[in-house]
Amino acid sequence: MQKQFSLLPKIAALSVMAACAAPAMAQTAGSNVVSVGWFHLAPQDSSEILRKNDGPGAGPIPGSGSTVKSADTLGLAFTRYLTDNFSLTADLGIPPTFKLDGTGTLAGVGEIGKAKQWSPAIVAKYHFGDGNSAFRPFVGAGVTYVWYDNVELTSNFQRTISSKYTNGAISSAKSSASLSSSWAPVLTVGANYNFDKNWSVGLSVSYIPLKTDATITTELPAVAGGTTHSSTSLTINPIVTFLSVGYRF
């Protein structure tokens, strides 16, 4: 009996060691992972000169330009592991609002406007290591469809172009804007760390080559040429960082 009791601590120690050595079973074929976190979008942007397309004084506005500020939003991703190494991820989240500031001859305007960007994406990923690894780097590529709504121009910018288009005669003409939608590729690298079979943290950095065309409609009086249209192109090319917490089921 005494010998049996003396074996109990050894058995307990072996059990703990076996549990620690057991595979995490964290990211294997058939696994689903829902991740929630923070998207930070940092545009690597540039813009073309604003051009008045019709009416009196049609042509480029010399030295005009704009720049897009960084944005943050809540991110949501759903990942399905097709094999232990390959997965498909749907990236969603609350659409961020981008703000544009004037540059060059429009620098004095300050904020030009803002727009909400929708950009759901599907990304195929290859995960290094095996399905039971705690730390799993990955690379991926996919596609996103980008469109915009709630596009607003500031009253200061509307006054500025109204005055420019009428040589200072009118500063109260109203303007509205629209942004083109487009498909864009997504390139990503990152890693997940699995605490146990259910919970993990992830960090990814993605690059999206993205360009959009902006059209501005200004309602000038008939004596000043009537309704006129202006256009420019914005290259946004955001670097997107996603820091998240994931749950496997």
UniProtKB/TrEMBL annotation:
Q: Does the keyword Signal apply?
A: yes
Q: Where would you find this protein in the cell?
A: Cell outer membrane
Q: Name one GO biological process term.
A: transmembrane transport
Q: Which UniProt keywords apply?
A: Signal
Query: Which Gene3D superfamilies does this one have?
Result: 2.40.160.20
A single Gene Ontology CC annotation of this entry is: cell outer membrane
Cleaved signal peptide residues:
1-26
Which is one Pfam family of this protein?
A: OmpW
**Name recorded for this polypeptide:** OmpW family protein
